[in-house]
């Protein structure tokens, strides 16, 4: 998968912020289309952080929409539909840093012995998607680094995110997928946009 340039990353974050603020101000979704990589179908998550604390995070794990469209929809959803938080108010956007993570398509991890799964997961590189029946949960690559998870704990926390038992990854009918992400984020609200090193998760 072709990586985004910093210039593209800046456009991605600015598009996410514009989408949120326009929606909060008018109740309408912007209909902006960008060229180049933004015309490609990509998975993407928009994360909102307020005073370095999570304020919302929603996205598309799979490349089912044009990147520009996926950014707009995930950004609005992160601000208004994350069930863990009340909807963001327009005036809050002065205190919120916008972060966009572009994803590679998830790849299923195959092992003969389920206890070998942690060896297939590289903390600081991989994000996780776990599915079992109607349940699914996803954690972005930066989460494991931010919380200092090892591979086994990362699997456990993704199971919990899916609403499953913490050791569900050991069960044969649980599907485990890995993906990678490229992160662009504001250093401060409306501030400079930089590419984030996942291994350090520092701006």
UniProtKB/TrEMBL annotation:
Residues 7-195 form the AMMECR1 domain. PROSITE patterns: AMMECR1 (PS51112). Coiled coil: none annotated. It holds the Pfam family AMMECR1. It comes from the Archaea. NCBIfam families: AmmeMemoSam_A (TIGR04335), PRK00801.1 (NF002000), TIGR00296 family protein (TIGR00296). PANTHER family: AMME SYNDROME CANDIDATE GENE 1 PROTEIN, AMMECR1 HOMOLOG. This is Protein Ferp_2479. It comes from Ferroglobus placidus (strain DSM 10642 / AEDII12DO).
